[in-house]
Design brief:
Bound molecules: adenosine-5'-diphosphate
Oligomer: single chain
CATH architecture: 3-Layer(aba) Sandwich
Mean pLDDT: 96
CATH superfamily: HUPs
CATH topology: Rossmann fold
Strand content: 15-25%
Number of strands: 5
Structural class: alpha/beta
Length: about 160
């Protein structure tokens, strides 16, 4: 049983994140998508809302689970018995930060592998910040996020 952890802020989940989950579950028996409770980042959605949107968006995917964690990714990965950390790489701009984090996580736990997956090209320019901005100014986001996220963003930015 090979389990991996896919950590992130997911504020909110996008089709790019879901693309990565689909690629990960093709390779591993279990993928735990885990929402980071990161107090240094101000988020639009609460952790509970982010977990709910992920649960609804991923509910038909066998072997995929959602949780949240407080603290270091490596500690949470050890707690749940994950063998690796999944991260998405969109462009060269992601590389430096991801490289630093992967090396630091390796230093903290040498048994844990970081696995980078690339999404479909159509998601390479997509991130949660763009989605939040588009939604705020009533742009059409329906091609980029699951229906539950469209609905939740409408509630956040009514009118
Ligand atoms: P974090 O704050 O940890 O970067 P995010 O929710 O922004 O959290 O992203 C979580 C992971 O998903 C990161 O590895 C990020 O590179 C990846 N990711 C984000 N958006 C996309 C996308 N459109 N396509 C593929 N991977 C993505």
């Amino acid at each position: 049983m090979r389990k991996v952890i896919y950590p992130g802020t997911f504020d909110p989940v996008t089709n790019g994140h879901i693309d990565i989950v689909m690629r990960a579950i093709d390779l591993f028996d279990e993928v735990v998508v885990t929402v980071a409770k990161n107090p240094s980042k101000t988020s639009l959605f609460t952790v509970e809302e982010r977990v709910e949107m992920l649960n609804v968006s991923l509910k038909n995917m066998e072997g995929v689970f959602v949780d949240s964690f407080d603290g270091l990714v490596v500690d949470h990965a050890r707690e749940i018995g994950a063998v690796g950390i999944i991260r998405g790489l969109r462009a060269v701009s992601d590389f430096e930060y991801e490289f630093q984090m992967a090396l630091m996580n390796r230093k903290l736990n040498d048994d844990l592998r970081t696995i980078f997956l690339m999404p479909h090209e159509k998601y390479t320019y997509l991130n949660s910040t763009i989605i939040r901005n588009l939604a705020q100014f009533k742009g059409d986001i329906s091609d980029f996020v699951p229906p539950i996220v469209v609905a939740k963003l409408k509630q956040k930015f009514p009118g």
